[in-house]
Amino acid sequence: MKPIFVFFATLLTALMLEAVPFPEEFVWFRPEWALLVILYWVIALPYKVGVGMAWFLGLMIDLLQGGIIGQHSLTYVIIAYTCAVFYQRLRMYHPWQQAFFVGVLVSINQLVDFWVDHYLGYAEPTLMIFMPAVITGLLWPWSFIILRSVRRMYAIR
User: Fold this and answer.
1) pTM higher than 0.85 for the full model?
2) Nearest to 14, CA basis, from 27, 40, 39, 32
3) pLDDT per position in the chain (157 positions), as tens?
4) Which of 10, 56, 74 lies closest to 36 in space, CA to CA?
5) Distance separating alpha carbons of residues 77 and 101, to the nearest angstrom
6) Contact yes or no for 79/58 (Cβ under 8 A)
7) Helix count (H) and strand count (E) of the chain?
8) What is the spatial distance between Cα 35 and Cα 15, in angstroms, rounded to a whole number?
9) CB–CB of 129/23 below 8 Å?
10) Helix (H, G, I), strand (E, B) or coil at 1
11) Which has the least CB within 10 A, 21, 40, 63, 105?
12) Which domain holds residue 36?
């Protein structure tokens, strides 16, 4: 299988995980799968995967969730750029240490999404908006290990 197809398969898998329905009482515990995957690829291949791919994936999330077009694209671009700037530093850290940085980046995503939703009258203030950041940060080490093994297995460079 060609490496480019495997790369897009990981993005498609993240989109499918984003589409999985969640019970209403656990909606705050939904991880940001697409952001998790794009962050890995930006850290692993910063010269090939970057802001453009983050913008495209954010646009797909907007279409998938039926939100405002460009809402997730904006935050994904900001986060991918931040990650691309610090990728050399992030590579030096252990995955558990990287998880903290990922949690902070996903918190930025959640905060910008909340601001847009609150401005439009769709959301009320609550600290639970940061729970997906905590869950995504906790999932980072395992996602990192799985995606790294896929990247090595299929020689994605």
Assistant:
1) yes
2) 32
3) 799 999 999 999 999 999 999 898 898 999 999 999 999 999 999 999 999 999 999 999 999 988 889 999 999 999 999 999 999 999 999 999 999 999 999 999 999 999 988 888 888 888 999 999 999 999 999 999 999 999 999 999 8
4) 10
5) 16
6) no
7) 7, 0
8) 10
9) no
10) coil
11) 21
12) 3-153
> How many Å from the N-terminal Cα to the C-terminal Cα in the chain?
14
d(CA 1, CA 47): 22
**For tokens 């909340």, what's the residue?**
114
Total count of residues recorded for the chain: 157
Reduced 3-state DSSP string for 66-125: CCCCCHHHHHHHHHHHHHHHCHHHHHHCCHHHHHHHHHHHHHHHHHHHHHHHHHCCCCCC
Residue 88 identity: Q
